[in-house]
Each structure stands twice: as C-alpha cells, then as structure tokens.
Amino acid sequence: GNSVTQMEGPVTLSEEAFLTINCTYTATGYPSLFWYVQYPGEGLQLLLKATKADDKGSNKGFEATYRKETTSFHLEKGSVQVSDSAVYFCALSERLTGGGNKLTFGTGTQLKVEL
Amino acid sequence: NAGVTQTPKFQVLKTGQSMTLQCAQDMNHEYMSWYRQDPGMGLRLIHYSVGAGITDQGEVPNGYNVSRSTTEDFPLRLLSAAPSQTSVYFCASRGGPTNFYGYTFGSGTRLTVV
Predict the structure, then answer these.
(1) Cα A48 to Cα A56: distance, rounded to the nearest angstrom
(2) How does strand A109-114 pair with strand B87-94?
(3) What is the C-alpha separation between A21 and A29, in angstroms, rounded?
(4) Residue A75 carries which DSSP code?
(5) A96–B43 CB contact, under 8 Å
(6) What is the pLDDT of residue A115?
C-alpha cells in the first residue's frame, strides 16, 4: 500500500536557522502531496500542497517541491521563528474504492525553535 | 466561525462503556472522515462519508460505528470501549470533488479508556 516516511524528530533549531524536514513517499500513480502543521492542543492545519510533479507548494515562508523522480516532498524554510514550533506531518492523498479518498500520513516531525 | 467542531474535548471512559464523539461542520462539505492519532503512528482513517446517507470503512474501523443522516453531522460511536481505543480523535471535512482543497480538521477529542 501507499506510505509516507518522515525524518524522526524532535528537530531543535535556533531562531533564524534554515529548516529542512525530509519526506519521501511510496504510491501507485500520482497522488497529491500535503504538509500539515499541528500546534500544541490543536487540530491539523493545511500548510501547503502540490498536486502534480514539479509543483511547488508555498505558504508562510515554507516551501516544498513535488519530486516524482525521487518520490520526495521535503519541507523547507529559510529562517524559522519560535512561533514555528509545532509538529509537521507529510501526507499523500489516495482514492478509496468507496468513491472517497483518504490521507496517508507520516508519523510527524516535532520542531522546536529556540531563541 | 466556520469550521469543524468536535465535542467533547476530553473524555475518560471505563472499559465496556459506550459513547458518541460529535462532529459538525458548517461549510456544506460533502466529504467527512474520522481519524485517530497515536504516538509514532501518525493519523489513521477510521471511517469516512462521501455524503449524507453514505459511509464506508477506513483502515481501522473495528469497534467504531458511524452514520451520516445530515450533511453537517458525522458522529463516531464507540460500542464497547477498550483501552486500545485510548487516542486522540480528529474529524475532518473536505469540499470540492478533488484533493485540491485539502482538508479542514477539528481540534480533536482526547479519549482515555481505563
């Protein structure tokens, strides 16, 4: 079946450091890819998405490029802030036999940004 | 505010008890789903619905029931709670016929079964 693999956390960075969170996937066909962010005590929020190869999703200074050749969707940000501290989930969307679709998530990567 | 509303936020059950987790959305989304979040496992799909009157199983449906009598509501029922159902439960909805719009998640229900 489809799967998503993320780098293990926690990742601890100083403010203004460069961030990369690796994400690779295994899927049949060409799924849509997502990054979700979960702040403490809250639900998941869509951070960015890409629906086809070579698409770049971006939002709030975060970017990720859909790389079909390496089956990757790495999350990057040039300068992190303390407010970026959260858990980040990589996910892909696949169709279900019942006509809907589901998100397959990675295990999440906790990011801690310190002053 | 528009979005997905889940109640309760916290719940403690004894083994064997039953309960219903509520989920409501006011965005007129056709697609709704329930996920559980467990440490080190990401989120896993329990049940989903593509519209009122239509539900189907996800990857971990055992011990849970759902129904979808209206577009707005998608309750999740635990029939006989077990400690293995201790988890954080998220309801999500999506508008539009494709994946383009992403999903909107509720803030979750933290359930402990003792």
Answers:
(1) 9
(2) unpaired
(3) 24
(4) E
(5) no
(6) 93
